[in-house]
Write a structure and sequence with these properties.
InterPro entries: F-box-like_dom_sf, F-box_dom, F-box_SCF_Substrate_Recog, WD40/YVTN_repeat-like_dom_sf, WD40_repeat_dom_sf. One of its GO terms (cellular component) is cytoplasm. Keywords: Ubl conjugation pathway. The protein has 8 helices and 32 strands. The protein is mainly beta. The longest helix is centred in the first third of the chain and has 12 residues. The model has no long low-confidence stretch (mean pLDDT 86).
């Protein structure tokens, strides 16, 4: 005889389970299956893991329930981990790019409505245009009209198939990469130095920094100016937003300019705040910053200083506090350490959702806890590391010969395991360099330049079946 507990207490109990145990609970009987498949439970799991989940997300991915979405996204996330080198198709696509060679994904996670894998890259051309390329088909899918001035910055919103460009005349343009003409245009009075498009809780926005240290926020899709704030006396190098876009960090690698973290809502809802809410992090010469994936309030910063150079890591937790009728931000230092001496200082940094710092020198891939406990070392010699890409699932290393090493984070430990190597069929020339390293669920792309010659997209497209 089956005993049926009341639904609400059962849902409360089931809400403490992870996805694996929730699937196990669904096997008990029909009643448990119905409760354990509840959209309420699975949506919370999706939000906990990816933050951005809403009904639009569900519709875009062609799924009917949050359980279906969760299972499919996990499968997609780990597709590269389960793959073998022979599961990838090597593609070399000659492209014409400007000196900076900008490239960004403009397809959200490589997913489409019918679940087939697809990656689309947006590129800046030396002919004052932007274009999109289907990586799996190796074809150009859209080209903008020739612009009156050279484009020097590009950012994209892949989930919306939108690109934003800034040219040398400080003209900002928004494109949906389907229409011939730009959807919206705006201008800055000073040259643009940094650019970032994100989807905030208040909708999609563009953050722009100029050479005078001002931060501008524009609304998408009309590029209406929401707010302006002067952050530094000089232009800042980086705009780094937290996973749910609650915080935005602005930094410059300069001795007397310390990073600032702003509460995003105070920049967007100007009628609710008398002034932008921010705090200064006591950390000079910021060389790199990385928000902890799947956590909203934790950021790790890296600096290099002295001769020989000493590398320092510090991790802060951001906290919003109410003081009377006002809101204040505090950045609490929770961990700090100096990197032990290596022949070369780290060039690249990333952080896992388990608070593991991964950094690369020319010859080593290194793992530490945020408190400095050394966990793992992968040595590269005679090869050297020239690029590093870190996400919540994978770490991808580019070597100086153009080959790629794919690592995966272990599910139940803090360590990495090496999955496989993807060989570059055309070795990197002596004076060539890798300008970009990008990856989504179904492709890995490098933008390679042959010395003073043209650029090429070197792509590895994963052949998967839904």
């Amino acid at each position: 005889m089956e005993i049926h507990l009341p639904s609400l207490p059962m849902l409360k109990i089931l809400s403490y389970l992870d996805a694996y145990n929730l699937l196990q609970a669904a096997q008990v009987n029909k009643n448990w299956n119905a409760l354990a498949s509840s959209d309420v439970l699975w949506r919370k799991l999706c939000q906990r893991r990816w933050h951005y989940c809403d009904m639009v997300t569900l519709q875009l991915q062609g799924k009917e329930t949050w359980k279906q979405f969760f299972i499919y996204r996990i499968w997609q996330e780990h597709a590269k981990t389960r793959a073998k080198p022979e599961d990838f198709t090597y593609k070399e696509i000659p492209v014409e790019c400007g000196f900076y060679g900008y490239a960004c994904y403009i397809s959200g996670h490589g997913l489409t409505r019918n679940g087939q894998g697809k990656s689309v890259i947006c590129m800046v051309s030396s002919k004052n245009t932007i274009s999109t390329w289907d990586i799996h088909k190796s074809v150009i899918t859209w080209v903008s009209p020739v612009q009156p001035a050279s484009i020097n910055l590009l950012t994209t919103l892949p989930d919306m198939h939108i690109a934003v460009t800034v040219d040398i005349q400080s003209t900002i343009k928004l494109w949906d990469c389907h229409n011939r003409e730009a959807l919206a245009t705006n201008n800055l009075e000073s040259p643009c130095k940094s650019l970032k498009a994100v989807i905030s809780k208040d909708g999609p926005i563009v953050l722009v920094g100029d050479t005078l240290g001002n931060l501008y926020i524009f609304r998408i899709p009309d590029l209406h100016l929401i707010s302006t704030v002067n952050v530094f006396p000089y232009g800042f190098d980086e705009i780094d937003c937290s996973p749910q876009k609650k915080w935005v960090l602005l930094s410059k690698n300069y001795p007397h300019i310390l990073p600032k973290v702003f509460y995003m809502s105070s920049l967007l809802r100007t009628s609710e705040f008398s002034a932008p809410v921010s705090t200064i992090l006591e950390f000079s010469l910021c060389q790199g910053a990385f928000w902890t994936p799947r956590r909203e309030d934790r950021i790790t910063l890296m600096s290099r200083s002295g001769f020989p150079q000493i590398t320092k890591f510090e991790t802060f937790d951001m906290k919003l506090e109410g003081i009377g009728n006002k809101v204040a931000v505090q950045g609490k230092l929770i961990a700090s350490f100096f990197l032990p001496y290596y022949e070369e200082s780290p060039n690249w940094i990333g952080v896992s959702d388990k608070d593991v710092i991964v950094c690369s020198t020319h010859f080593f891939l290194l793992l530490f806890t945020i408190n400095g406990l050394h966990l793992q070392t992968f040595q590269y010699c005679p090869e050297t590391i020239v690029r590093l890409c870190v996400d919540p699932v994978h770490v991808i290393v580019t070597c100086n010969n153009g080959s790629l090493d794919v690592y995966a984070w272990e599910e139940r430990s803090l360590l990495l395991r090496k999955c496989y190597r993807l060989q570059n069929k055309r070795p990197l020339p002596l004076y060539g360099f890798i300008n970009n390293l990008l990856c989504d669920d179904v492709s890995i792309v490098q933008l390679m330049r042959d010395g003073h010659g043209p650029y090429s997209l070197i792509a590895y497209a994963l052949n998967i079946c839904s």
